[in-house]
Amino acid sequence: MMNSDQNPEIKRAQHEASRAPHLRNYLFIFLFALMVVGLMWQWYDNRNQIRSLEQTLGKRLSEVDVQNRESHMIAADSKNSLREVETKLRVLENKVLESQNQQVALEALYQELSRNRDEWALADIEQILLIASQQLELAGNVSAAIVALQIVDNRLQRFDRPQLLKLRKAVNDDIDHLRRLPVPDTDGIIFRLDNIAASIETLPLAMEVRPREETVSNTRASAGENMWVRLTREIWQEMKQIVRIQSLDKPEVPLLSPEQVFFLRENVRLRLLSARLALFAHDEKSFKADLSAVQDWLKRYFDANNTSVLNTIVVIRELNDSNIDIEIPDISGSLDATRNYRLSRGRSPS
Predict the structure, then answer these.
(1) Contacts of 125 (CB under 8 A, 6+ apart)
(2) Which of 71, 74, 132, 135 has CB atoms 3.0–4.6 Å from 141's, for a disulfide?
(3) How far apart are CA 343 and CA 350, in angstroms?
């Protein structure tokens, strides 16, 4: 009887013992299924992120294509500017050639003059005045013209003749007129333009600025941390190192190829050269237009947060505020007085 009564309990214990391995298998299958679902979700999320990145890259490529067309337009404008500069250089060369021809003609005239001391001195004075007049016309060199007029006044003073008082008065009037002119610091402006042109190659571009690297702290896993949680965290850290999503403060920053960067720097130098030529010609409109173009290119294409770029922009702004549009004077009073005196000497009996 006791054996028959204990049989059901023994059978029940055996049944419970046989169910325990099945429960562990079910639990393992459930955890495995949960891990598979997590991996599939992670794969789906990464796929969406890659698709978004592809769309962003497509937009950037279209923007680069537009900027490439703009760079070609800028290159075409620079070619036109170069043609204009070459035209101005030809005009200046023609004027220099004309001045050389005039100088040759004056030298021939000087050889034909009589050996009379007064006639020789007056011809020399007229030649000095012509050279000073050409300096004013071609380069606006007021200081050289003043020096030439002072030399003429000193030579006239050596004659010590009352007939030359009217001529000396005309020369001194021209000297006073030239001294009252607001002469710009041409040498200083040229020096600063040359320094800017020499430093253009070293100025950093806006597209070369790199985002700051984020420091990733390598936290150690605690003793009780789950293996799957640690694995998931490590995979996420690796993914963050591979893909970087950044919000740009200035999305309009142009991306230039190395060829476009070369043409950009060369165009800046051409604009500075054009501004230098405009300074010689006292063409304030062209001078300010060239400097404004250089300033706009520096603000658009170069790193505006860099100290060298900021200093260059400040220097260009100061040069742009310079007044170079002065009225080109002449010394026609001294030239006319000299020629009239020579004509009166030719008509007077010897």
Answers:
(1) 152, 155, 156, 338
(2) 135
(3) 13
Are 81 and 120 contacting, i.e. CB atoms less than 8 angstroms apart? no
**CB 276 within 8 Å of CB 290:** no
The token pair that represents 7 in the structure block: 């049989």
Give the list of residues 6+ apart from residue 96 with CB closer than 8 angstroms, or none. Answer: 138
pLDDT digits (tens, 9 = 90+) for 149-185: 888 888 888 777 777 788 888 888 888 877 777 666 6
Q: How many CB atoms lie within 10 A of CB 320?
A: 16
Q: What pLDDT score does 273 carry?
A: 92
- Can you tell me the distance from the alpha carbon of 197 to that of 273, in angstroms, rounded to the nearest whole number? 8
* DSSP conformation letters of 152-174: HHHHHHHH--GGGHHHHHHHHHH
Q: What residues pair up with 248 in beta bridges, in sequence order?
A: none
Q: Tokens 């010609």 identify what position?
A: 281
Please enumerate in sequence order all residues whose Cβ is within 8 A of that of 127, keeping only pairs 6 or more positions apart, or say none: 103, 106, 110
What stretch of H or E contains 11? helix 2-112
The residue extents of the domains of the chain are 72-183+328-344
E strands, 56-181, are none
How far is the C-alpha of 246 from the C-alpha of 242, rounded, in Å?
13
CA dihedral sign of residues 312, 302, 287, 147: positive
Could you tell me the two tokens for 240? 């963050």
Rounded Cα distance between 207 and 204, Å, is 9
Our separate counts of H helices and E strands in the chain read 10, 0
Angle at Cα 177 formed by Cα 172 and Cα 179, nearest 5°?
Answer: 95
Helix (H, G, I), strand (E, B) or coil at 203: coil
As given in the structure block, the two tokens for residue 179 are: 């001294």
Q: Report whether 181 contacts 141 (CB < 8 A).
A: no
Q: Return mean pLDDT, the chain.
A: 77
For residue 44, the model assigns a pLDDT of 85
